[in-house]
């Protein structure tokens, strides 16, 4: 296996891990909201400046992690 192939495989691993983390974050935000957490508190916890930013992040995660056929 060439060095380039190894680096590309490692890069693919990073992309896979990023998708997994996105699903976890989406699910944890959803669970926090269902448990009564405010968007302001979620934003603060995630290090996002505004509640609107946290809402937009959650919406983007939903779009990014939902298969197109659903």
Low-confidence stretches: none
Strand element count: 0
Oligomer kind: single chain
User: Mean of residue pLDDT?
Assistant: 95
Share of helical residues: over 70%
Discrete helix count: 3
Distance linking N and C termini: 38 Å
Report on this structure.
- The protein is mainly α and 70 residues long.
- It is 79% helix and 0% strand.
- The protein has three helices and no strands.
- It has helices spanning 3-34, 39-46, 51-65.
- The protein is elongated, with a radius of gyration of 16 Å.
- The mean pLDDT is 95.
Précis, in short:
With 70 residues, the protein is mainly alpha-helical. It contains three helices and no strands. It has helices at residues 3-34, 39-46, 51-65.
Give me the secondary-structure topology.
Layout (H helix, E strand, L loop, with lengths): L2 H32 L4 H8 L4 H15 L5
Helix pairs in contact: 1-3, 2-3
List keywords for this structure.
single chain; 70 residues; mainly alpha; 3 helices
């Amino acid at each position: 296996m060439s060095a380039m192939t190894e680096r590309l495989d490692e890069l693919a691993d990073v992309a896979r891990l990023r998708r997994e983390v996105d699903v976890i974050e989406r699910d944890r935000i959803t669970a926090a909201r269902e448990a009564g957490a405010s968007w302001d508190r979620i934003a603060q916890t995630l290090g996002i400046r505004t509640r609107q930013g946290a809402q937009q992040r959650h919406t983007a995660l939903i779009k990014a992690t939902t298969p197109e056929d659903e």
